[in-house]
Amino acid sequence: MASLACKGQLTIALVFTMVSEITLLSPKVKALRHINSFTDGLLSLRAAGQEGRFASMENLVSFACIPEQSRGRLHDEPESATRSCYQRDRDRIIHAAAFRRLQYKTQVFVNHEGDFFRTRQTHSLEVSQIARSIAQNLHLNQYLAETLALAHDMGHTPFGHAGEFALEDLMAPFGGFDHNAQSLRVVTKLEQRYADFDGLNLTWETLEGIVKHNGPLVGFDGAEPLPWATVEYAKEHDLQLDSYASAEAQIAAVSDDVAYNNHDIDDGLRAGLFTIDDIRQVDFIGETFAAVEKRYPDLDFSRTVHEAVRRTIGMMVEDILKESRIRLADAQPKSVDDVRTFGEPLIGFSDEMAKNDRELKEFLFPNMYRHYKLNRMTSKARRVVRDLFELFLNEPGTMPTEWQVGTAGPGHELTARVVADYIAGMTDRHALDEHRRLFDLQARTSEFTLG
Fold first, then answer.
1. Which contiguous run of DSSP H or E holds residue 185?
2. Long-range contacts of range 396-400, CB-CB < 8 Å, 24 or more positions apart?
3. Is residue 98 within 8 Å of 158, Cβ to Cβ?
4. Mapped to the 3 state alphabet, what secondary structure does 333-392 carry?
5. CATH placement of domain 98-372
6. Under a CB-based contact definition with an 8 Å cutoff, are residues 346 and 328 in contact?
7. pLDDT tens digit sequence for 171-229
8. Domain boundaries, the chain
């Protein structure tokens, strides 16, 4: 105790001496010392290692994906001097052509049905905001969570799930189609912007999260055959398809649920597919609307919907944080590999919120996703995708010249794969325009366009 007291007195004396010295200094000298101290701090941080600097600034837990511990990229590159490897991945995704095209791809409503409904891109942005908030609160890598949220739908087809299901059926004889596998193909092959490699050359952690953010793909009972795109890539780059992905990837997956459930409530109500009174049958949603109406009895429809959706998102996020902290405290992971091999997700809803989530989905399926107005749109979308696929498969010479590279004649498996890549990359508008040009006998068969 005496030793501690002496140390305490010495510390106080030193501080007093420093303060006294600073008081006697001129303002100019004070400023110079302040700048020099700040510069020395920056140099110390740089000396500690650029990636270590990014990691330490985030105060990450030991089982987070820490940039300096990344497994790297398939093609070696110098690291960025200004961004961590995951921030760099995020920026490459944002600048990718496939990400820009998400602006004109269906979430639920076909793009031309209205300017105020969610698109695949606005959905991805909402997922990224939720994912980043959750990761930050759990001291996980918010940049990786954000990256995975932005990238998770880059392989989605035009016309949402209608286009995806159509391509799944059409590609069944040729190795199958899956939008997560297509996202992997987009970021590793189809984006062709860089001089040294195809794709975006993203980190291992980003690639594993894109492929298996919903869980392992192999090694368990009931596992479905892998899509050919995943099989092909796994031959040169092992993404450990039999394990779970990182906690950041699990955050992206559950954030996807939070985002699309809530914005589908918003879009469904604004489109008139169902009413507030209809959705009251989902207990926790009904309770939320009741609380809003009690607090704001004279609020207009638009603000009432927004306030209820805002509160629902908040409740879901708070539930994820509480439940995930419980799971993590029980599991006691020491590293990201502990998360991968734990055997079940460590990030997710509580049982009660998972029940609420199922009830909401059970309401939305018949009242929104199978509403006759959407059935008409999806029926048309399936026909467009089917017509285009069958024409291009049997007459590959009708595709743009650059897309004919890699085909192997009518009906061939390699041709089918190229056709699937071409169609999956289309926006809703592009697919409709191509269909009109190729099947409307009075339409011009080609137009002068860029890209």
1. helix 179-185
2. 398/438
3. no
4. CCCHHHHHCCCCCCCCCCHHHHHHHHHHHHHHHHHHHCCHHHHHHHHHHHHHHHHHHHHH
5. 1.10.3210.10
6. yes
7. 999 999 999 999 999 999 999 999 999 999 999 999 999 999 999 999 898 898 898 89
8. 98-372
